[in-house]
Amino acid sequence: MPAIRSVFLSTYAPEECGLACFTRDTADAVDLAAGRPVSSAVAIQKTRSLVGTDSRVKHVIDNHSPNAYQKAAGEVNRGRFDVVSLQHEFGLYPGNWGSGILHFLNECLKPIVTTFHTLQKQPDSLPCRLIQKISERSQAVIVMTRTAADLLRDVYGVCTSSINLIPHGVPSALFPRKPVHRQVLGLEGRKVICTFGLINPGKGLEAMIKAMPKIVNQCHEAIYLIVGVTHPQVKRDSGEVYRNAQVKLAKSLGVSDNVRFFDQYLSLPQLLSHLQASEVFLTPYPGKDQIASGTMDYAMASVGAVVSTPYLYAREVLADGRGLLVPFGDSEAMDDSTLRFLCNERFSRQTRRRAYAYARPMFWPIVGRKYSDLFSSVFNQQFENRNVAAHMAAFGK
């Protein structure tokens, strides 16, 4: 049977956001699993023009345009697509809680597989009902952790049979790490601590910067790399206020030479080089309900020694000795946990091995095959249901 042709509805590169990268990487992995290009995209334009940027993009959605999602549904219905892969994130779509996506769902005639990137533990009635409606309209839904699957079932009432667990994909990383990466980056002889991702006030960077004086006092060669540009929408709304505040904080604490900002949107090889140069990776996020984190997954595969606040995703993936959890906003706990990795090589080595073993099923070729198999299953079931309906209609049943 021919490979299933999928169309992804999401933001898409060159938009500088994690979801755009995830969508591109997932589509690449599905194409790899199929052995040929089978993936297209209906891309939401946020801060950059996407017209003509990638042959995979078949239609561009402007959230400010009237009837944008009805038009997108029409394009999908007319297109040579077998399955829609809908990426859901609150704030991605127009309307209250992103309810504008329902216009697409109500008019799309193709089978839909929805990936949920954010779920709340105690949702208000409107976002709860929205998740329920999206799930009801989808032939299958995807989450990335058991925690998220439990939330869908127990809090949102989604049928267990429609829930599929497929982890966030990561590049097939090399293990063990090699010191050449620190040499290339001019960090030879340093103990590198790293956080990467789009910078915004929700990152909690100030808590880790406040931990740096104690870390530097005990480990003089320590340096904290904060890698990434300010989120485009944050920059448009408030400029570099947050980043500048963190630079001033480091200076006021006397650790300017031990906190370095890389204000660049890195290519994948550049990102992996930074990660594999790192001794410890930090996610000091203050938000408690995050159910997915590509940065965490990349770090587990490429760094292995991770310190994190206990948001939902971190609690699951760092369990059983795969990393260290610290209380939200607790700088003292962050410096203690970071120093444990920096000063105890045996502990670091054991943790890295557990983290890497956990991350291996996340490698993109494996994840792409799982998406491809699910798309095929959904399409085949839809095809079978239509045949049964036609058969019953023919015999007057």
Shape field = globular
Order of secondary-structure elements: EHEEHEHEHEHEHEHEHHEHEHEHEHHH
CATH H-level superfamily of the largest domain: Glycogen Phosphorylase B
CATH topology of the largest domain: Rossmann fold
Q: How would you describe this structure to a colleague?
A:
The chain has 397 residues and is an alpha/beta fold. It has 2 domains: 6-168 and 363-394, Rossmann fold; 180-360, Glycogen Phosphorylase B (Rossmann fold), CATH 3.40.50. Helix content is 45%, strand content 15%. It has helices at 18-34, 68-78, 101-107, 125-137, 146-154, 180-184, 205-218, 232-238, 241-252, 268-276, 294-302, 312-317, 331-343, 345-359, 364-394; strands at residues 6-10, 39-45, 57-62, 83-88, 112-116, 140-143, 163-165, 191-196, 222-227, 259-262, 280-283, 306-308, 324-325. The strands form 2 sheets. Strands 3-2-1-4-5-6-7 form a 7-stranded parallel β-sheet, sandwiched between helices. Strand 1, helix 1 (18-34) and strand 2 (39-45) form a beta-alpha-beta unit. Helix 1 crosses helix 15 (364-394) and helix 7 (205-218) crosses helix 13 (331-343). It starts with 5 loop residues before the first strand and ends with a helix.
What does the secondary structure layout of this molecule look like, with pairings?
Elements: E1 6-10, H1 18-34, E2 39-45, E3 57-62, H2 68-78, E4 83-88, H3 101-107, E5 112-116, H4 125-137, E6 140-143, H5 146-154, E7 163-165, H6 180-184, E8 191-196, H7 205-218, E9 222-227, H8 232-238, H9 241-252, E10 259-262, H10 268-276, E11 280-283, H11 294-302, E12 306-308, H12 312-317, E13 324-325, H13 331-343, H14 345-359, H15 364-394
Parallel strand pairs: 1-2, 1-4, 2-3, 4-5, 5-6, 6-7, 8-9, 8-11, 9-10, 11-12, 12-13
Helix pairs in contact: 1-15, 2-3, 7-13, 11-14
